[in-house]
Amino acid sequence: MARAGRRPGPNETREQIVAAARTQFAEQGYDGATIRGIAAAAGVNAALLHHFFGTKQQLFVAAMNFPVNPVDELPRLLAGPPGELGERIVRLFLGLWAEERSREPFLAILRSVTGNEQAATMMRQFLTRVVLSKVAESRGVPPIRAAAVASQLIGLVLLRHVVRVPPLADADDEELVALVAPVVQSYLTP
Length: 190
What we know:
Blueprint: H1 13-32, H2 35-42, H3 46-53, H4 56-63, H5 70-79, H6 85-98, H7 100-115, H8 117-139, H9 143-162, H10 173-187
Helix pairs in contact: 1-2, 1-4, 1-8, 2-3, 3-4, 5-8, 6-10, 7-8, 8-9, 9-10
């Protein structure tokens, strides 16, 4: 059993927890990894994980180096007028990919999930449980519609930022919002 309290010496505990979490999520997927298991792998008490990260979701976000926490963004996205949800989602998504500091981690995640089955499983479980199910439930639509939103947006950024297909790569955000938001809105309209 791990000792309670602060470790002696330099405090690298947070980084050790994140490293253990990455390993546990990669080996067991989002669903299979547990706070207790991650704590044991890091050699700390589970309460310390809650102290640093709060929840398993927040630990996953930190371990995957997400520039934003999707769990924090969902309430803001869902709070506005329902008829403008598609536009809010597309604007947020394009905005996150527009900034170099947030684009790089997303590109790394995108590349890892397309080339590694463990990473794909982990991301699939997280997206399904934590993001897509919540969006579908809040809008009263079948889960396949929320998944279609994700496919639309991932396809857009893949062609725009990875493959760099013109004119998508050269279009300004407003043009893309006008083009894609109505499609996203149609998926989320019961």
